[in-house]
Amino acid sequence: MAFNIESVPNQAGKPAILLREAWREGRRIRKRTVANLSKLPPEIVEGFRAVLKGAVAVGDIGELMQVERSLLHGHVAAVLGTVRGLGLERMLHRTRSRERDLALAAVVARVLSPDSKLATARRLSPETATSSLGALLGLGPVTGNEMLDMLD
Questions:
Q1: Residue 14 belongs to what domain range?
Q2: Residues 90, 47 share a domain
Q3: Is the CB of residue 3 less than 8 Å from the CB of residue 19?
Q4: Helices 74-86, 98-112: inter-axial angle, 10-degree rounding
Q5: What's the confidence (pLDDT) of residue 27?
């Protein structure tokens, strides 16, 4: 089975550009139209042709995209999942509140990276986050004073 792009003459003037599938049944070659590409721009059709011939669709992904920020997530999800599995959230408080989420974040952050409360607050705030913990708990901006008040 093979795919190719064919230009088929049309009575209306412009030829139809079709994506076709071809296969052999005995001595006969069968064709089936998969898509009509006539309305696509010529550069897109040429891109399809190149891909069907084995070319790479995108040469260098770095030219098209630039990573602006990448937050660590795997170890955060593992520790947070374990803490939730143990029921620590409900031990801290039955209903969800910002204070409970801050306390939970402090526990998880201490397991992941034992830092001061100010450093933990900075790691949780969206602007200076180093992991996805603050986003997973929906904390938003966190101040050092909030982390200190959480202990009271």
A1: 2-57
A2: no
A3: yes
A4: 120
A5: 93
Tell me the DSSP string of the chain: -EEEEEEE--TTSSPEEEEEEEEEETTEEEEEEEEE-TTS-HHHHHHHHHHHTT--S-S-HHHH-------B-HHHHHHHHHHHHHTHHHHH-SS--HHHHHHHHHHHHHHH----HHHHHHHHSTTT-SBSHHHHHT--S--HHHHHHTT-
Entry pTM: 0.57
Q: Which single residue is written with the structure tokens 């969800």?
A: 96
pLDDT tens digits, residue range 114-126? 989 899 999 999 9
Residues 135 and 108 in one domain: yes
For 133, the token pair is: 């913990």
Shared-domain flag, residues 81 and 145: yes
The confidence score (pLDDT) of residue 18 equals: 93
Q: For the chain, what is the domain count?
A: 2
Considering the domain architecture, whether residues 20 and 52 belong to the same structural domain is answered as yes
Q: List the beta bridge partners of residue 99.
A: none
**In which residue ranges of the chain is pLDDT below 50?**
none
Residues 80 and 144 in one domain: yes
